[in-house]
# Entry
Amino acid sequence: MAEPLPLDVAATLNALLTGSGQVSSALRAQLPYARAVGRCGCGCGCGCATVDVAVDHTAVPPAPAHGNPAADAWYAEPEDAGVMVFTKDGYLSLLETYSASSEPISTWREPRFVER
# Structure
């Protein structure tokens, strides 16, 4: 079931999509129309904070052509964690957090720690 983006997810997406590039601007414009439609689906049972995202395609146009991940960054704290945003057909589709250690990232870090 779709639900509004949690505030920490929206803030993380906003931090990742900073800048004046066409792709970042178009993806930021999708945030008001984005919804959380699922959680970590890798099947490992790790309980990470990864979120599946869906955007209302009738409300906002897709971003220009670009690669995936559309944006990625490391966290300054903890130093062994990162975050990536993926798209499908020009629309936000996944906000993934990952850890270089054996411990999954189960909560979103503060966006101020995002280092692009």
About this structure: Strands lie at 3-4, 34-39, 51-55, 71-75, 81-88, 91-99, 114-115.
